[in-house]
Structure formats: C-alpha cells, structure tokens
Amino acid sequence: MICSRTLSSARVMACSRTCSQILGLTLGTTALFAAGANMALLFPNWDVTYLLRGLVGRHAMLGSGFWGGGLMVLTAAILISLMGWRYGCFSKSRPCRSMLTSLLSSGLALFGALICFITSGVALKDGPFCMFDVSSFNQTQAWKYGYPFKDLHNRNYLHDHLLWNSVCLEPSKAVVWHVSFFSVLLCLSFLQILLVVVHFINSFLGLFCSLCEE
Fold it and tell me: For a disulfide at 112, which of 68, 133, 145, 175, Cβ 3.0-4.6 Å?
C-alpha cells in the first residue's frame, strides 16, 4: 500500500514537472508575441514617422504588451520552466521553497497579463488615435488628431464597419491596424491569465505530492 502511494505520488510529481515545462514554454511564447504586437502598434502601416512626430496613441505608448504581457510574463515563464526542468538552484529545492517561487512567478505573470488585458480592452473601447474631420462633430471645417470614436455614444465603431474607412483620414487603415493588434493583445493576455490559473493548480498538486513523499 505504501509502495503504491509512493509510486502514485512520483507519477503525479513527474506529470506536474512536465506540465510546468509546457506552461513555461507556452507563456514565454505568448510573451514574445505580445511584445511583437505592441511593437507593431507603435508603427502604424509600418511607418516610423508617426512615432517620431508623436502621433501614436497613448494606449500603444503605454507599452503594456512590452512590460506587462511581455517582460513580466516572460520572466515568470523562465522561472516556471526552470522549476519544471529542475535546473540550477531548483534541482534540489524544498517543496515550500518551490511553492513560494511558484506563487511569486504566478503573481508576476498574472499582474502583467491583467494590465495588458485591461489596457487592450480600454484601447478597443476608445478606438484608434488618428486624424479626422472635426466638421463631422461641429460646423467648423478643420482636421485634427484625436480619438474620434470615443465621442460616438450612439454608434459602436467595432460593430459598424462603415465607419472604419470614413472617419479616420490618416494613417490609412488606422482602425484595422488598431483593432487587429489590440485584439491580438487582448486574446494573448486572456490566454496568459488562463495559463497562470492552470499553473496555480499544478503547483498545489506538486506541493501536495512532495509533502506526501516526505
């Protein structure tokens, strides 16, 4: 009976470590994609002049895909992978120490992913930063840079595709660029949150089996 319990705990421990390896790799990949998506948002239509002229929206300039869904999640992913492979200082770490490291890495990844998720949601709600005709909002003929869709309370630009090419004059296809990459960031950060939750569960299972082995 004792032998079978030990074997069972050993199998769960091996499964937990494999799960950490996969989670670490997946989180790291999503972090790199998030950083890439945020990079694209800084260069509408791959044109560097908008960034040099300061004509990039505040949501993209905040860089939550860089340091939130990117750097913070990547750091946590490296720690999770090291624990899964039991590499370096994690090769003979005690269960409590591993659990503490797991909680810290999960908290770091969760915080970064949540910031990226919230920022992306707000960015999609406010719409792109672009040049638009102010005369459509008042009777003065003028053009300026701003957030034209933020004041459209009676119409949702995300559902009304007729507005995509008629409101923003510059950059061209500003709405498509904005919606595409912020949607990518929103989905990636949501996936990161789910992966962190799975890692929490996996860590507790690993801790329980480690204590049973002792």
Answer: 68
C-alpha 5/C-alpha 56 separation (Å) is 59
Residue type, 34: A
Instruction: Determine the Cα–Cα distance for residues 87 and 91; give it in Å rounded to an integer.
Output: 5
47 vs 112: CA distance, rounded Å: 28
What is the tens place of the pLDDT at every residue in 39-69? 999 999 999 999 999 999 999 999 999 999 9
Predicted model pTM? 0.84
pLDDT tens figures, 172-205: 899 999 999 999 999 999 999 999 999 888 877 7
Q: How far is CA 38 from the centre of its chain?
A: 10
